[in-house]
Amino acid sequence: MLKLLGASLIILAGTLCGMQLGGYLAHRPLQIRQLRTGLTLLETEIVYGSRSLSEALASISRRVGGEAARLFSQAAELLATEQEWSASECWHCAVHRIWPGTALKEPEKDVMLQLGFILGQSDREDQQKHIRLALANLEHEEACARDSQQRYEKMCRSLGVLSGVLLVILLY
Amino acid sequence: MGYDVNAIFQIAGIGIIVAMIHTVLKQSGKDDWAQWVTLIGFIIVLFMVASFINDLFQEIKRVFLFQ
Amino acid sequence: MDIIQIVGLGIVATVLSLVVKEQKPMFAFVLATVTGVIIFLFLIGKISDVIRVLEGIAMQANVNIVYLDTILKIIGIAYIAEFGAQVTRDAGQGAIASKIELAGKILILVLAIPILSVIVETIVQLLPS
């Protein structure tokens, strides 16, 4: 009886692991799309708006929603509270803080960090150009992420279940 | 039914599961991982079988009076 | 009934072996081998009892114990050789199977030679020269 319980627990654990890994692969394109939406809104704010960076980022985070919104809200908070830090430092700090909680990977992080260097530093056209560049890179990453997801999501889930069953049989 | 009849079911189960993992990995394109998993599964099974055959030969030696 | 258990086990193992054979023939071969081993290990208890009885009878009949030992060893060699040959033949390696059988025959002959020479000496002694 206890053996049966332990066996079903192991199989459940394996299945959940597989589903979690598959979930990461599935969420990545969605979150990249959220980042792109946020950056497009930021570009609009910088070119046409006249609010301070902190307010702009806060309103963007409210409109974007999802995991990526946390990046914008964290950056807005840091800009508002930490007076000695520059905009790029706040941006980088926000990126480093929220990144582990997302399904995003290194290439996107590099793009966002690059963007952070020019934020609030130069004039409107220059910042707009850089944001457009970041958007193009993110679009490419999103295509790669969708490709990965298609190929590996089902595989991860099946592998999770099968490994669970294999462990049960080995430990029988 | 002395001994460990479950060993038969264990080996059959491992065989089927390893075959399924092999197919899943091959369909996702990771052919070399598939080969590795099959090989490792076979080595594990081989360990079990080797210990069984060792027991068998020990028993035969004992019963048929080989010193 | 023991025979029913053994036959049941054999049938189940055969079915499993057929299922696995089309995916991974290696595992099917291993499965058949292990089934044979397990069935034999189950019987070993009974064989042991029979041999003890034979030993008792032999001691009562004042037969030299060496003869019984030799016979039992020959039976043991014969069984192991047949097991190995059948298993390798199952896997398709007929050549290896024949060599194993040959080895078994030669080893049995080696064990039997002392007894044969004793018989020949006895007969020669009985003959009036």
Automatic annotation (TrEMBL), chain A:
InterPro entries: Spore_III_AB. The chain crosses the membrane at residues 6-26. Keywords: Membrane, Transmembrane, Transmembrane helix. Pfam families: Spore_III_AB (PF09548). NCBIfam families: spore_III_AB. This is Stage III sporulation protein AB. It comes from Aneurinibacillus danicus. The gene is spoIIIAB.
Automatic annotation (TrEMBL), chain B:
This is Stage III sporulation protein AC. The gene is spoIIIAC. Signal peptide: none annotated. It comes from the Bacteria. NCBIfam families: spore_III_AC (TIGR02848). The keyword Transmembrane applies. The chain crosses the membrane at residues 7-25, 37-57. The keyword Nucleus does not apply. Keywords: Membrane, Transmembrane, Transmembrane helix.
From TrEMBL, chain C:
InterPro entries: Spore_III_AC/AD (IPR025664), Spore_III_AD (IPR014211). Keywords: Membrane, Transmembrane, Transmembrane helix. The keyword Transmembrane helix applies. The keyword Zinc does not apply. Pfam families: SpoIIIAC (PF06686). The chain crosses the membrane at residues 27-44, 106-127. It comes from the Bacteria. NCBIfam families: spore_III_AD. This is Stage III sporulation protein AD. It comes from Aneurinibacillus danicus.
